[in-house]
Design brief:
By secondary structure, this protein is mostly helical. The chain has 12 helices and no strands. It has a domain of 188 residues: Arp2/3 complex 21 kDa subunit ARPC3. The N terminus is likely disordered.
């Protein structure tokens, strides 16, 4: 006799009645992050991209232009410092009134050589246009404060332009701007080549400052203001060297004496700087610092925007006539 179990078979659970936790595998709880925190803003991305972008040089210095620049700088140093380099019994000291004219003539020729060498190193039409605009602006700024305690607004523009556009473009810009401003103000004379070279050095130095790609914001402004302050005094001191030998016996206590030892002439030169140009140089330095801190952010943004849009490193091509 067969035994039958009266217990009915188990009924399968209905899918609809099964809790979601039994059907769906468990996943760890992850905090939900707002999209604004995961995705950087457009302005932040653009700023980071601009910061990481390589520096664009409107006028790269090739080997030929670099050699010419070093040559003219070496001759310029001799032209400025010859009163301290020539021994007291040198024949050059017997012509101390003629020596500045000789070096001025040499500087004119050498600056022309540098200009020719730089023009051969890919100075395209866009860079020429930028050079012309900035040089004209600087030349127009110079007469604004001429004769008023050394207030010369052009110096801050030279610092910012050299910073953005690089040392090669900076040297060309400083020299051309000083030449144009001399024509505008009637300041043409034997001192002009020395002014052109000094301003070229001034602007070139701004292009050699560290951090041209990464350094931005307040730190960059403070660095540029500090450089402008020191370079303004250096410019005045160098130009004093160019004009000091012309004094002759006009001011016996502070004038250059060709047969005096170097230490005595150095003391006379320091006294000459303190007596004639300290106030002027201080006004130039303070004006450069104030304008750099006040107008620097806006001018730097404008120069960098213009540099990006100009795309100096892209060659300009002209399409032939259609048909």
């Amino acid at each position: 006799m067969t035994h039958t179990d009266p217990t009915p078979p188990p009924t399968p659970l209905s899918t609809s009645s099964t809790p979601a936790s039994l059907n769906t595998p468990s996943t760890p709880n992850t905090p939900s992050t707002p999209a604004s925190l995961n995705t950087p803003s457009t302005s932040d991305t653009a700023e980071a991209r601009r910061t990481r972008a390589p520096r664009v040089r409107a006028l790269p210095l090739g080997p030929r232009s670099l050699v010419a620049l070093v040559l003219v700088s070496a001759v310029g140093v001799v032209g400025f410092c010859w009163p301290f380099l020539a021994p007291p019994d040198s024949a050059l000291n017997a012509h101390s009134q003629d020596a500045p004219w000789l070096f001025a003539g040499l500087l004119v020729l050498l600056v022309a050589v540098v200009a020719a060498a730089i023009s051969e190193s890919a100075l395209g039409p866009k860079a020429v246009a930028m050079l012309g605009v900035l040089a004209a602006t600087g030349a127009a700024l110079r007469p604004i404060g001429a004769g008023t305690a050394g207030i010369e607004p052009m110096f801050f523009l030279m610092v910012l332009s050299g910073r953005v556009l690089g040392p090669g473009f900076g040297f060309a810009l400083g020299s051309v701007t000083m030449f144009a401003s001399a024509l505008l103000t009637g300041g043409v004379g034997p001192w002009l080549p020395f002014q052109m070279l000094s301003m070229g050095w001034f602007t070139l130095g701004a292009g050699l400052l560290p951090g041209p790609v990464r350094l931005r914001g307040r730190a960059e402004l403070v660095m540029l203001a500090g450089y402008g302050f020191l370079a303004a005094f250096a410019y005045g001191t160098v130009m004093n060297l160019a004009g000091w030998p012309f004094l002759g016996g006009a001011a016996s206590n502070i004038s250059f004496q060709g047969h005096a030892p170097v230490a005595e002439n150095l003391a006379r030169f320091i006294a000459y700087c303190l007596a004639t140009s300290l106030g002027w140089d201080l006004g130039r330095a303070v004006c450069t610092v104030v304008l750099t801190l006040a107008l620097g952010p806006a001018v730097l943004r404008a120069l960098r925007r213009a540099t990006r849009r100009a795309a100096f490193e892209t060659a300009v091509t002209f399409d032939g006539p259609a048909g």
